[in-house]
Amino acid sequence: MFFFLSKLVDTLILPSNIMVALGALATLLLLVGWRRLGYVAGALALAIPLAAGFTPLGNLPVAVLEDRFPVPDLTEPPTGVVMLGGAVDLHLSVTRGQVILNDAAERVTETAALANRFPTMRVFLSGGWSSDTDKGRVSESSFARQALIGMGVAPERIEMEENSRTTFENAVETRKAIEPKPGERWLLLTSASHMPRSVAVFREQGLDLVPYPVDYRTRGLAHPLNRPRSTAVGLTNLDLAAHEWIGLVGYWLSGRTKTLMPAR
Q: Would the pTM of this model clear 0.85, i.e. be above it?
């Protein structure tokens, strides 16, 4: 139930969807003669892309998340890396019969780079299907495995689980699969904006992994007045921020994490 509810809420709160809904409402209000309310709804619909594209609002909420955990300085080979799903466009990959990465592709490319840098490091992929309608088809982890092999990672080094649909399920399934031993040092690799929620839920499952953020979308809080290069990018970042911040709140309220924002 939580999975379906989270998907529904996520759809409803995305700023780009709210913008379209306000535009449709404005049109309806004007058609029925409620001009004042129609103008207000229309102005609000226009304000969202203007704020996202021409002010720092499109970047700042993402920058706060991205700056939470720095990239670690790896002087010693880690025991392994856990790469969370989210870099594969599962529907297109299944339809086209080849691995198609999305704009979080750095999750895969950086995992491959780390694997090639540290030949003894274990590689664990966590990611199943994005919905129950995909279950039974080729999983996201399976496609990511294909991509890593194509980048020179030996097949026997790659372990994976194919059951998780959410970040919470990533943590539960990963704990079952790898069972880290005392003294082992595992990396948690995911998008920088997704890292705070990932760290919080993995810690709740007893996995204190070293955050290794990738896939940055902003220049960070060192450049607070930096605005997106286009309205489209600004809206995309605003949607990303809404998704992650609502996710943090939802996991905290539902008891999946004990902290709203995990400590560094």
A: yes
Contacts of 26 by beta carbon, 8 Å cutoff, 6+ apart = 38, 39, 40, 41, 42, 45
Q: Is the pLDDT of residue 4 over 90?
A: no
Topology adopted by domain 76-214: Rossmann fold (3.40.50)
* Range(s) within the chain of domains with CATH label 3.40.50.620: 76-214
CA 24 from centre of chain: 29
Compute the average pLDDT of residues 176-185.
91
Given a contact cutoff of 8 angstroms between Cβ atoms, the answer to whether 114 and 77 are in contact is no
pLDDT: which is higher, 6 or 183: 183
Residue 123's closest CA among 71, 158, 169, 170? Answer: 158
pLDDT at position 9, please? 62
Beta pairing, strands 80-84 & 186-191: parallel
pLDDT digits (tens, 9 = 90+) for 68-80: 999 999 999 999 9
**Where do we find the tokens 């539960």?**
172
Helix (H, G, I), strand (E, B) or coil at 205: coil
Whole-angstrom distance, CA of residue 21 vs CA of residue 27? 10
Q: Coil, strand, or helix at residue 176?
A: helix
| DSSP letter assigned to residue 103 | T
Q: Are strands 186-191 and 158-161 parallel, antiparallel or unpaired?
A: unpaired
Q: Is residue 193 packed enough to be buried (19+ CB in 10 Å), middle (13-18) or exposed (0-12)?
A: buried
